[in-house]
From TrEMBL:
This is 3-oxoacyl-[acyl-carrier-protein] synthase 2. SMART domains: PKS_KS (SM00825). The keyword Lyase does not apply. It comes from Thermalbibacter longus. Keywords: Acyltransferase, Fatty acid biosynthesis, Fatty acid metabolism, Lipid biosynthesis, Lipid metabolism, Transferase. Its EC number is 2.3.1.179. Belongs to the thiolase-like superfamily. Beta-ketoacyl-ACP synthases family. Involved in the type II fatty acid elongation cycle. Catalyzes the elongation of a wide range of acyl-ACP by the addition of two carbons from malonyl-ACP to an acyl acceptor. Can efficiently catalyze the conversion of palmitoleoyl-ACP (cis-hexadec-9-enoyl-ACP) to cis-vaccenoyl-ACP (cis-octadec-11-enoyl-ACP), an essential step in the thermal regulation of fatty acid composition. InterPro entries: 3-oxoacyl-ACP_synth-2 (IPR017568), Beta-ketoacyl_synthase (IPR000794), Ketoacyl_synth_C (IPR014031), Ketoacyl_synth_N (IPR014030), PKS_Beta-ketoAc_synthase_dom (IPR020841), Thiolase-like (IPR016039).
Length: 412
């Protein structure tokens, strides 16, 4: 089977619209969470979110094309373009059929859905946009990448809630290993910050209500956590077979060596308390990577800051890693960028690649009062310089979907 390497990265996040800005601010422990500015949240119980600020689609794509895309697809095209440029990948009619897209999401075009439903009921059928269907469809992030960059290989999108971004890497890995494709543009995107979506999560009891302390609201593994912070963004990787990357003398960040997906079969929104599905995903991913638990240096945790998830993930890590669970470094970027839902796992993969590149892991900020049930090393509050040879990205979603990807320093 073909080895698979990471050659390009791109992000649109609450901490920055490019890789180096995002990475620098993440390592500095900065928070991208604040009071919602894209609409007036005054009437809502939850008034904070992790918004992408300063994003102008015209900076990344043709204005006319951007007008026909929902925000989630605009993010996808922007991040993919960064990753393609970062990889130095030239897409031509000669190689376009050997390049694919696997761009997942949790909700698709939520902004378009809300806007056009309101148009229908408030302004009448004639005011519904003829572009409504191709704007809200969840596959349109992937399809717009294909159209904008001329990619004619397989174009795929899975809806896998909060596991979507990592699942994209796992599915892309399988296709590349088999030689069905030479290059895959893979990742996750989400842009669902609408009043109805915020209210729905709030009514579930899933969101933090620290409206007066937005930067302190996301507190993974902290005793005083009270829910996650809803966010938006996108992360994309260029994945290639090793042979293809070496033929074109590409710069290689790291190698994607394994992955797995599992199901909890437990609850529509709560994780299994014993973390069995998450543990099995990590165990299967390590087996697929032919890697021992004690070879993992860093875990980019799902770490949502909800009372149930953080304990469940901690139990799952202990189940999988045994005594090494107390030695491995673990951190949650969600403490700074909130929960990006379908993009969350993709961001975690990017964090793993950068941690391996730079031998440093980002902190879990706001970890001030450790939960006795969360007693592992979560790299509290300050980034840590350390050797990172191997890392895993965890992502666990509503409905019990679990996805794990394993990355390793590349050696030829």
């Amino acid at each position: 089977m073909h080895r698979v390497v990471v050659t390009g990265l791109g992000v649109i996040t609450p901490l920055g619209l490019d890789i180096e800005t995002f990475w620098s601010r993440l390592l500095n422990g900065e928070s991208g969470i604040d009071r919602i500015s894209s609409f007036d949240p005054s009437d809502l119980e939850v008034q904070i979110a992790a918004e992408v600020k300063g994003f102008d689609p015209k900076d990344f794509m043709d204005f006319k094309a951007a007008r026909r895309m929902d925000r989630f697809a605009q993010f996808a095209v922007a991040a993919a373009g960064q990753a393609i440029q970062d990889a130095g990948l030239a897409i031509t009619p000669e190689n376009a059929q050997r390049i694919g897209v696997m761009l997942n999401t949790g909700g698709g075009g939520i902004h378009s859905m809300v806007r056009e439903v309101l148009n229908f009921y408030q302004r009448g059928p004639s005011r519904v946009s003829p572009f409504f269907v191709p704007m809200f469809a969840p596959n349109m992030g992937a399809c717009q990448i294909s159209i904008v960059y001329g990619i004619t290989g397989p174009i795929m999108a899975s809806v896998a809630a909060c596991a979507a971004g990592t699942q994209a890497f796992v599915d892309a890995l399988r296709m590349l290993r088999l030689g069905e494709i030479d290059v895959m543009i893979a990742g996750g995107t989400e842009a669902g910050l609408e009043p109805v979506a915020v209210t729905a999560f709030a009514n579930m009891g899933a969101l933090s209500r620290r409206n007066d302390q937005p930067q302190k609201a996301s507190r993974p593994f902290d005793r005083d956590r009270d829910g996650f912070v809803f966010g938006e963004g996108c992360a994309v990787m260029v994945l290639e077979t090793e042979e293809h990357a070496r033929r074109r003398d590409a710069r290689i960040y790291c190698e994607l060596i394994g992955g797995a997906v599992t199901g909890d079969a437990f609850h529509i929104s709560a994780p299994a308390p014993n973390g069995a599905g998450a543990a099995r995903a990590m165990e299967l991913a390590l087996a697929d990577a032919r890697t021992r638990p004690d070879e993992i240096d860093y875990i980019c945790a799902h770490g949502t800051s909800t009372p149930l998830n953080d304990v469940s993930e901690t139990v799952a890590i202990k189940t999988t890693f045994g005594e090494h669970a107390y030695r491995v470094a673990i951190s949650s970027p969600k403490s700074m960028i909130g929960h990006l839902v379908g993009a969350a796992g993709a961001v975690s993969g990017v964090v793993c690649a950068l941690a391996i590149r730079d031998n440093i892991v980002p902190p879990t900020i706001n970890l001030e009062n450790p939960d006795p049930e969360c007693d592992l090393d979560y790299v509290p509050n300050v980034a840590r310089r350390m050797r990172v040879n191997a890392a895993i990205a965890n992502a666990f979603g509503f409905g019990g979907q679990n996805a794990v990807a394993v990355f390793r320093r590349y050696e030829d």
